[in-house]
Amino acid sequence: MTSPSQDVKRQRATTFAGKNAGQVTVSAPAGALSVVWESAFDRMCHAVSADDMAVKNARRYRKLMDEIIESTGCTEEEILAHGRKVRAVLFFAQDRLAREGALRHLTGKARYEYRLPPVAHAF
Q1: Residue 81, pLDDT above cutoff 60
Q2: Cβ distance 32 to 94 under 8 Å?
Q3: Do 28 and 42 touch, CB atoms closer than 8 A?
Q4: Of 40, 43, 72, 105, which has the fewest beta carbons less than 10 angstroms from its beta carbon?
Q5: Cα 6 versus chain centre, distance
Q6: What is the rounded CA–CA span in Å between residue 87 and residue 82?
Q7: Which pLDDT score is estimated for 1?
């Protein structure tokens, strides 16, 4: 059974709009997908969970992380776990599309537009 605080966090994450959500630009793992984000929370978690963001751009990482924590009540660990889950969903979506041949005709900087439905929360 989940605790009421976890339910509250999930609800806040579902309705999260984020002040900086529209400014966060991220690419898919291998670059073949142009992701259309249905969830600002997924997009922000994906951005802050990049392997080198906390090191290479510590101020931006902290700003985005603090905004998500303040808006949702999630811990930093929960946000990073969700971001890794979003990354995994995108990785497997790209793999499936490649096996199905949907990415076969992409050349140069062409990207496959992929609509990512909200990912089930990792907390």
Answers
A1: yes
A2: yes
A3: no
A4: 105
A5: 19
A6: 9
A7: 47
In one-letter notation, the amino acid at residue 52 is D
Rounded-to-10 torsion of CA 30, 32, 38, 42: 0
CA triplet 120, 121, 123: central angle to 5 degrees? 145
From the number of C-beta atoms within 10 Å of its C-beta (0-12, 13-18, 19+), residue 41 rates as: buried
Tokens of 96: 């499936």
Average pLDDT on 87-113 reads 92
- The total of other beta-carbon atoms located within 10 Å of residue 43's CB is 21
**Total-model pTM:** 0.84
> In this structure, what token pair is assigned to residue 6?
């976890």
- DSSP-derived letter for residue 29 is T
Residues listed for the chain: 123
Domain positions in the chain: 4-116
The number of angstroms, rounded, from the C-alpha of 58 to the middle of its chain's C-alpha atoms is 18
The 3-state DSSP class for residue 53 equals: helix
List residues bridging with 36 in a β-sheet.
Answer: 115
